[in-house]
Fold Chorismate mutase.
Amino acid sequence: MTDALDPKAELLRLRASIDNIDAALIFMLAERFRATQQVGHLKAEHAMPASDPGREEQQVARLRALAEDAHLDPEFAEKWFNFVVAEVIRHHTEAAEGR
């Protein structure tokens, strides 16, 4: 039996690919949070609100469309975005409080 047909070898190959994707996602999230922390400091310096509902609404619509194009469940994309934004707003609030 060749490796291409060996289910155990195929499973290991697929899992290695998943592990690489997970690592890339973590580094991309870290980069995203570095950028949003800069936004938080800017907002804090200029007494701007921690959240921007209009911007968030635009981003949800944009990400839902991207998810559809990528054949990803738009509901999942929106849930992910809302989870990330909640953390960003927490960081912005802490920056505004001088933490």
